[in-house]
Automatic annotation (TrEMBL):
<dbReference type="InterPro" id="IPR007111">
    <property type="entry name" value="NACHT_NTPase"/>
</dbReference>
<dbReference type="Pfam" id="PF17779">
    <property type="entry name" value="WHD_NOD2"/>
</dbReference>
<keyword id="KW-0677">Repeat</keyword>
<dbReference type="InterPro" id="IPR041267">
    <property type="entry name" value="NLRP_HD2"/>
</dbReference>
<dbReference type="Pfam" id="PF17776">
    <property type="entry name" value="NLRC4_HD2"/>
</dbReference>
<dbReference type="InterPro" id="IPR032675">
    <property type="entry name" value="LRR_dom_sf"/>
</dbReference>
<keyword id="KW-0547">Nucleotide-binding</keyword>
<dbReference type="GO" id="GO:0005829">
    <property type="term" value="C:cytosol"/>
</dbReference>
<keyword id="KW-0395">Inflammatory response</keyword>
<dbReference type="GO" id="GO:0005524">
    <property type="term" value="F:ATP binding"/>
</dbReference>
<dbReference type="GO" id="GO:0045087">
    <property type="term" value="P:innate immune response"/>
</dbReference>
<dbReference type="Pfam" id="PF05729">
    <property type="entry name" value="NACHT"/>
</dbReference>
<dbReference type="InterPro" id="IPR041075">
    <property type="entry name" value="NOD1/2_WH"/>
</dbReference>
<dbReference type="InterPro" id="IPR050637">
    <property type="entry name" value="NLRP_innate_immun_reg"/>
</dbReference>
<feature type="domain" description="NACHT">
    <location>
        <begin position="1"/>
        <end position="127"/>
    </location>
</feature>
<keyword id="KW-0963">Cytoplasm</keyword>
<protein>
    <recommendedName>
        <fullName>NACHT domain-containing protein</fullName>
    </recommendedName>
</protein>
Length: 475
């Protein structure tokens, strides 16, 4: 998206009033360990501007700064921290002043540094609360593909239009997969994972994925199947890279270097061929070589997968509880995948190449999930508690464990995600509505469903309609 914005600006299609657009990725900024100045940041990335910076600062209204991926930034930017405005060492009002990177970003957004310039920050929804106290003039949600654009993607992805039609037909039949298609990255994963089911003559259509975990399971399965003859100890290698991925998720790190590989007994040469070359992208420059997963969600899936490959799971429930308590969203998708991989349907494809999952781990995950759903159902007083309840419903959905779902949800009579105050209500996405609809369907009767101020849009309502007849009172 950011590349598209810059391309359209450079070709004169948008933002003609900006003379310069500076793009910084938080994933790259994480590598900085000293106290830079804004001038130094720009010169390092745009060295040809070194001699004209003083002129640029005279006209801040012509400058646009884009900071991409706030959810990937390791440092915390606290916009409610009044000390930033009183402590001299934390005030960043001059482009030449050396200070913490988080203070530079803070000062640009709060118009204390180069007042008059424009700042665009992108983020996953999980990190938006970090900007709640910031001086934001416009909030925008990227809706992605809508309607026919989703079908068009698949017909452009596949040369064989019959395969494209078959894949999209399956997607249309599955509410969750269809709803996921708003995101081009998910469309890419869907196409790669579903394509083989409709191109192989004897492919088992009954195994076509129906949840996000199953989808990513087949994404990894297809990579492994391409290299099954050449692989040595795929379980061991996948465990190591999964442990590295989990450390990255824990510390909000998505860029790895040779030191990280060495720490997990991985060899750089392994990433030049074989299945690791498809699983991890290798980027080299004059200064360094770094490794990243094609998408953060793939890193989160591999991190979850490692939990089922470790011969010594240890106190897994304690680790899951710690992850669930984290409020900044870094573990949300990881935990959905952990719950999903407890399902035989998601595990079986990977077990063909990686060997059986550790049974003790699967049992521990199911026990943890049972405990968590029962606890969260009773606690919806705060917006954080509502978010945790919604997350546990996502975990339950991904697990596809009908017996567990019936046991934990069958006697539920009240579900509260909304509030008279929009600040205390959850914004529910269409995917949330798919999961909520499934959850309501498992309840005997819902006396009250509170969706006040949840900003449910048309597509979300379409996903909910089928289950609303079970609700006696809808708020």
């Amino acid at each position: 998206m950011v590349q598209k914005i810059v391309h359209d600006w450079a070709t004169g299609k948008i933002y003609p009033h900006f003379h310069f657009v500076f793009v910084f990725k938080f994933r790259d900024l994480n590598r900085l360990h000293d106290r830079p100045s804004l001038s130094r940041l720009i010169v390092e990335q745009y060295p040809y501007l070194r001699n004209v910076l003083d002129e640029l600062w005279k006209h801040p209204e012509t400058l646009l700064f884009i900071f991409d991926g706030l959810d990937e930034f390791r440092a915390r930017i606290d916009f409610a921290d009044s000390r930033r405005d009183t402590e001299p060492q934390r005030r960043c009002t001059d482009p030449e002043f050396r200070c913490k990177l988080s203070d530079i970003v803070y000062s640009l957004i709060q118009k204390k540094l180069l007042p008059g310039c424009s700042v665009l920050v992108t983020s996953r929804p999980t990190a938006l609360q970090l900007l709640a106290k910031a001086q934001v003039s416009v909030w925008a949600e990227i809706l992605g593909f809508v309607g026919e654009e989703r079908r068009e993607y698949f017909h452009k992805f596949f040369e064989d239009q019959e395969v494209a039609a078959a894949v999209y037909s399956h997607v249309e039949e599955n509410e969750l997969l269809l709803t996921m298609c708003y995101n081009p990255s998910y469309c890419w994963i869907l196409a790669l994972s579903l394509g083989p089911f409709f191109t192989r003559k004897h492919s088992n259509k009954q195994r076509v994925p129906k949840t996000i975990t199953q989808l990513f399971s087949y994404y990894i399965y297809n990579i492994l199947s391409h290299h099954s003859v050449k692989m040595e100890s795929p379980r061991d290698v996948m465990l190591k890279i999964g442990e590295m991925a989990f450390t990255g998720v824990s510390h909000r790190n998505i860029v790895f270097n040779d030191e990280d590989l060495f720490k997990y007994n991985l060899q750089a040469s392994q990433f030049l061929s074989g299945f690791l070359m498809e699983l991890v992208e290798r980027e080299s420059s004059e200064d360094s070589v770094v490794y990243t997963f094609p998408h953060l969600t793939i890193q989160e899936f591999v991190a979850a997968l490692a939990q089922f490959l470790s011969p010594n799971p240890g106190n897994l429930q304690k680790q899951l509880n710690k992850a669930h308590r984290e409020e900044d969203g870094r573990f949300e998708i990881f935990l959905r995948f952990v719950a999903g991989l407890s399902s035989p349907r998601a595990a079986q494809p990977l077990e063909e190449f990686l060997g059986p999952f550790v049974h003790q781990t699967t049992c521990a995950v199911i026990d943890w999930l049972k405990e968590k759903v029962k606890a969260q159902i009773r606690d919806t007083d705060t917006v954080t508690a509502k978010r945790k309840l919604l997350n546990t419903l996502h975990y339950l959905f991904e697990s596809q464990n009908q017996a567990l779902a019936q046991l934990t949800l069958g006697s539920v009579h009240t579900l509260t995600f909304g509030d008279l105050s929009s600040e205390k209500a959850l914004r529910l996405t269409p995917i949330d509505c798919v999961v909520l609809s499934q959850a309501i369907g498992l309840c005997d009767t819902i006396n009250q469903l509170n969706l006040r101020s949840c900003f449910i849009q048309e597509e979300g309502l379409q996903r909910l309609v089928a289950a609303l007849h079970k609700c006696q009172e809808l708020l």
